[in-house]
Amino acid sequence: MADIIDIEEYEDLTGVDRNDYNPSLAKPDIYDATISAATNTFQRERRTTVRNEELRCWYIRRGLHRGIRANFQDALDSCYFEQLDHDITGYETVSPKDFLYHLKTVWCRLDTGARLEMKD
């Protein structure tokens, strides 16, 4: 949710502290760098479990972004989002929040009145 709405609104709705949210889209390392030969078995398994959960959440978030990007592209004409296209990465680095911000700032905000006018 924090990838789509503002972080302040996310904190108000969920009660999750904004400092616990990591806005980075960087993939976590596969292995925990803090594990060494001196790490005991319990700590090694605990840190591995935590790292696996971070990776799992990263993949879920990545899939969510891909799905939302596809929904935006299906719902809108290309003229509304083609400026966000990157020569090399395409739309892979565009977050859902970027799509919404682009629509609100470059294009126009559709309110109920505008929708009713379009229907008429």
Task: Walk me through the structure.
This protein is mostly helical and 120 residues long. The protein has helices at residues 7-14, 41-75, 96-105, 112-119. The protein has one domain (25-119). The protein starts with 6 loop residues before the first helix and ends with a helix.
The portion of residues forming beta strands comes to under 5%
Overall pLDDT score: 81
Q: What proportion of the residues is helical, as a percent range?
A: 40-55%
First-to-last CA distance:
34 Å
Shape: elongated
> How many structural domains are formed by the residues?
1
Structural class: mainly alpha
Order of helices and strands: HHHH
Care to count the β-strands? 0
Gyration radius, to the nearest Å?
A: 20 Å
SS summary, helix count: 4
Give the low-pLDDT segments.
none
How many strands, what sense, and barrel or not for the largest sheet?
A: none
